Peroxisomal trans-2-enoyl-CoA reductase
Amino acid sequence: MPTSIFRPQLFSGRTVLISGGGSGIGFAIASLFGELGARVVLTARNRARLDQATGTLTERGIEAFAYDINIRNEGEVEALFEQLDADALQPDVLINNAGGQFAAPALDISPNGFRAVVDLNLTGTWLMCGAFARSAQRREHGGRIVNIVLALDSGIPGMAHAAAARAGVVNLTKTLAWEWAPLGLTVNAVAPGIVRTDALSQYDDAQLRADVAALPLPRMAEPEEVAQAVAYLASPAASYITGVTLALDGGEHLTGATPQHAAP
Ligand SMILES: CCCCCCCCC/C=C/C(=O)SCCNC(=O)CCNC(=O)[C@H](O)C(C)(C)COP(=O)(O)OP(=O)(O)OC[C@H]1O[C@@H](n2cnc3c(N)ncnc32)[C@H](O)[C@@H]1OP(=O)(O)O
Ligand SMILES: NC(=O)C1=CN([C@@H]2O[C@H](COP(=O)(O)OP(=O)(O)OC[C@H]3O[C@@H](n4cnc5c(N)ncnc54)[C@H](OP(=O)(O)O)[C@@H]3O)[C@@H](O)[C@H]2O)C=CC1
């Protein structure tokens, strides 16, 4: 990976809250913001993994903090923001990266399975956005929100629940961009295609390789490439950008519903 194009200390004095920051893409985002001078606050459910991540960041000279919460739980999200107030770690930037799903043909997704995925990806993101905006409003302090979704222009066969939930986040992003502009908040999203993280081990490798081979840029994205896009949207260079979803997908959005995307 090329070194960062951003100037050193770009985010000095800023606190960046990254959900799912202890692993994969979230950890790459935390690393980049930290290297650019930000204090980073990581959240996820797995305490041990969070501690390992903050340990690694601290060794690199980054100020890093961790809170274990489940973003699906409204009470835990509210308590997180109260604790951040108490710890003087009110965030300037929120990155909603936590999320996920299981692969299954639509007809095999039970109502509870559908609900679980919508609850995590759409409701969890919404809960974090609301708590962050209320905090910013109270403090009369603007800020940035960046939501990580999935590339979904061709639909996401095999993941109907995630497709629906992430499309919800894309329109939530547009709507909150309107409503919260007067609060000094911008709200944007990044839609990655397939990104090389450990989490891919739960998907069928042959399917992933076929999907990647069909792309105009036939390779996976690296987590650091997602981080650079997120940093751009949180930077002063993007101060006039709100409500957009940036496709970071190797051109997947150009391919349409090709046979490679046929539902299982
Ligand atoms: C085509 C390839 C594309 C190939 C293309 C792939 C592109 C990949 C791009 C994306 C990559 C990533 O997102 S990587 C990120 C990966 N990380 C993750 O996905 C982990 C996140 N997962 C989770 O947090 C959870 O597993 C989550 C999905 C939200 C479910 O949470 P819960 O704890 O509530 O789940 P449970 O209580 O166990 O189950 C709730 C219901 O879901 C059902 N359920 C759970 N797992 C199930 C399964 N594998 N198949 C069917 N049903 C399942 C259960 O039976 C329950 O329904 P009932 O039995 O009816 O009660
Ligand atoms: N890898 C890929 O190809 C792509 C990934 N994405 C999306 O990017 C994001 C990061 O994915 P990636 O880094 O690959 O995978 P990871 O599984 O490493 O990231 C998911 C993160 O979300 C956290 N998380 C999951 N559920 C909850 C919850 N209920 N409350 C709080 N935190 C939660 C997990 O931590 P914990 O389990 O400890 O809670 C984990 O840190 C996800 O939203 C994913 O869907 C989008 C496009 C492609």
Observations:
- Helices lie at 24-35, 47-59, 74-86, 111-138, 160-180, 205-213, 223-234.
- Strands lie at 15-19, 39-44, 64-68, 93-96, 143-148, 185-192, 245-248.
